[in-house]
Design goal:
- With 217 residues, the protein is an alpha/beta fold.
- It has helices at 2-7, 26-31, 43-48, 63-70, 86-94, 125-131, 145-149, 164-167, 185-196, 208-215, and strands at 19-20, 35-39, 55-56, 76-80, 101-105, 121-123, 138-141, 157-158, 177-180, 201-204.
- The longest helix is centred in the last third of the chain and has 12 residues, at 185-196.
- The chain is globular, with a radius of gyration of 18 Å.
Length: 217
């Protein structure tokens, strides 16, 4: 939005009308270098199985924040979304300068495709305590800096989830990444972006405050 406000929006013309994507076209879509699939399902469904390289932007009040943070303006956008929500999602995205919305896939169709779905490793903080002492993992805290400064895991890297695309090069690629936030919501989106960039990722679906109290004792 900073770029849009500085330069002014381009003339859009008519509202984009993304086409419904046939199951047979999904493989080609996933392999296209200039396309990005935005999955609007809830985080549990996404972690259990999603298209390789897709990002998670659950259909709620954070939807356009995540898409605006993780999608470049020149990328072709394909949504995994219920058909009755498509028009509202398109309006949400063009308001933040993203109008290359080319198509959509109904979530049910993911169960019907031959393309292999990807599973994300999901853990809790008890498992984090078992994994970190080995030194074989990078701990990534995607909360805001103010939250991080109030308490964090030893050796953690802090990058707010909305800044992760711009700063992803700061996350070492040679080790698997354990990613967490306060409750798991922000970390779920961040985990999807890390996987898109070929990181082996462990997503912490857990509440951080009790864990921080324990590790600070």
């Amino acid at each position: 939005m900073k770029k849009e406000n500085k330069n002014g929006p381009k003339v859009l013309g008519s509202i984009p009308k993304p086409e419904k994507i046939a199951i047979s076209a999904i493989n080609e879509l996933v392999e296209s270098s200039n396309s990005i699939v935005v999955d609007t399902r809830d985080r549990t469904q996404f972690m259990e199985g999603h298209l390789k390289g897709s990002i998670l932007a659950t259909w709620n009040k954070t939807f356009n924040t995540i898409v605006g943070s993780y999608v470049n303006v020149d990328q072709d956008i394909y949504l995994i979304i219920e058909e009755d929500l498509v028009e509202e999602a398109v309006l949400d995205l063009i308001r933040i300068g993203l109008d290359n919305i080319k198509g959509f896939i109904i979530p049910h169709n993911l169960k019907c495709i031959n393309h292999e779905l990807v599973h994300t490793n999901t853990i809790d903080f008890h498992q984090v305590d078992e994994m970190l002492p080995t030194g074989d993992y990078t701990l990534l805290d995607v909360r805001k800096e103010t939250e991080f400064n109030e308490g964090h895991g030893q050796g953690a890297i802090n990058i707010a989830h909305t800044r992760l695309l711009d700063r992803i090069g700061e996350v070492p690629l040679e080790k698997p990444v354990i990613v967490h936030c306060k409750s798991g919501a922000r970390a779920s989106a961040a985990a999807s972006l890390l996987e898109r960039f070929k990181y082996k990722t462990y997503y912490v679906d857990d509440v951080v405050d009790p864990w921080l109290k324990d590790v600070s004792k």
